[in-house]
Design brief:
146 residues, two-stranded antiparallel sheet, 3 helices, alpha+beta
């Protein structure tokens, strides 16, 4: 269920990439090792953050880091070598934390392979303290403030 927000971002909150698992991503059962799925999520998350110019370098410049504090992943079916996969990342929460929901689908059949989400919190670099307010630069990049 979507979260209600007082203000909606003026930038796109969705990014989609395509990946094709390489041989070194496989486990002994000839399917993508579950840990490599997280790498695909990271690639989609970076594409999303880059789309509104708040990727990791910009986070550091703004004085914050955003560690992942929770990750949930539901493997629906196996991914295989060379299979074209679409990885969709959508920013669904941005007030006090960042939640990104993911869906990995087979690019040809549109079948769901994996569903996941990550939660990230802003931590001030200088103090190491978690911020309980959304950093101004993040809100600006989302178009929530001028």
């Amino acid at each position: 269920m979507p979260v209600e927000h007082a203000l909606e971002p003026t930038v796109s909150r969705v990014a989609e990439i395509e990946v094709s698992p390489a041989f070194h991503d496989l486990d002994p059962m000839d399917v993508v090792w579950h840990g490599n799925t997280l790498k695909y999520l990271e690639l989609a998350r970076c594409a999303l953050l880059q789309s509104f110019d708040y990727d990791y370098p910009q986070m550091r410049e703004s004085g914050y880091v955003w560690p992942i504090v929770d990750l949930r992943c539901k493997y629906v079916r196996s991914a295989r070598y060379g299979q074209r996969l679409r990885v969709r990342a959508e920013l669904t929460e941005w007030e006090m934390r960042m939640r990104i929901d993911y869906v990995i689908r087979d690019a040809e059949t549109d079948e769901v392979v994996t569903r996941a989400h990550t939660l990230q919190v802003a931590v001030e670099i200088a103090s190491g303290e978690m911020s309980y307010a959304t950093p101004e630069m993040f809100r600006r990049r989302l178009g929530l403030i001028a």
